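My current task is to audit a protein record that another person submitted. My question to you is simply how this chain folds and whether the tokens agree. This is what I was given:
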Amino acid sequence: MNIIETNIKRRVSAVNLLQKVIFIMDISNSPIAFCTVVSQQLHCLCPRSQKMLAIELCRADIEYVGVRIKCRGNIGGNMQPMKANPVRVLGISGSPRSMATEFLVREALRIVSEKYNAETEYFSAHGKKLEFCIHCDFCVRTKEGCVHKDDISAELYPKMTWADAWIIGTPVYQGTISAQIKTIMDRCRAVVARDRKALLNKVGMGIANGGDRAGGQEPAIHAILGFYIINEMIPVGGGAFGANSGAAFWSKDKGAEGVSEDLEGMKSLRKTLARLVETAQKLKEY
């Protein structure tokens, strides 16, 4: 690629050079392909440029979300991708129905699996037996889990401890989270009662969808983020200019079709997922 040789001649640093190549190539779904292209292009440079780029690459730790790329081997292009341990992501749909929330959580899991090579697990409240916490303190006294032997105990607890990162999705009911999500949150007391550090430093994000444009999506997401803080997890949002606290959707009461047409919502989802995986990956590395 001409841009590599041109920028080398202009003495642009390897890090800035590679960032520009990433942007221009727009290969965000294939960091390995990017690595291969750079490797091939080393052969097109003059020997001095080859040496300069190879040295800089060896010094630099070029990171892409979910993949760490380092230069090793012979000068001239044995660039090999070094995949980190895949992030394990749990998606929880807190809707009693199989509509917009289920679609969004499954879509989020599809994205992290395909784009970031994450391992995924899924739990839906739809059709499940979910018992309320009755504050009996069985979990505190015995440290043997919850007194209720329902779908949360049998299916969800193991997935919670397995995951490095959580995605909690909720429909907006009365301006906040669903009763199903609140039940799941309350029942996490049994997980922490058994092991105080069971959820420590797991990363979490929230998805909320409402039939109205301003139906309470952000308060619902804040309730999810507050839950993460209480349990010593690390809450993340997507950042300014499009995502802020997390992924917020307006379904217009059209279910999965409605949220899939919400382009701003989809933008907020992708931005927040990128932050989720990036944070979880860095925590696994350290």
In short: DSSP finds twelve helices and nine strands in the chain. Confidence is low (pLDDT under 50) at residues 4-42, 54-82.
